[in-house]
Amino acid sequence: MDTFILAATSFTIAVSLMIKGKKDALQTSFAGLCAAVFLSQISITMGNFFNLEFLLKIRYIGLLAIAPSALLFFRYLTRNKTLISRRLFYFFALASLCGVIMVFTPLSEKNYFADALRLYTFFSLLLCYIALAWHVNHLPSGTEKRRLFYLLVACPVAWVAGNAHLLNHAGLSVPVINGMVMSVLLYFILLIIAYPQLRELHDFFARSLVIVISSLTGALIFYGASSFFGGTPPSLAGLLLASFLVVISFTPMKIILKKIFSYFYPGSKDVFTSLYEFDEKLEREKALMLAEMAPVVAHEIRNPLGSIKGAAQYLKSEASTPEQQELLDVIVDGTDRLNAVVSQFLEYARPYQLNCIMQDINAIIRKAVSVVAANQQAENISIVQQLDERLPKVKVDENQLVQVILNLALNAIESMPEGGTLTFSTCRQEADEEGDVSVMIRDTGAGISNTDLKNIFKPFFTTRERGVGLGLAICQKIIREHGGSIRVQSAVSQGATLIIKLKSSEWI
Question: pTM above the 0.85 mark?
Answer without folding.
Answer: no
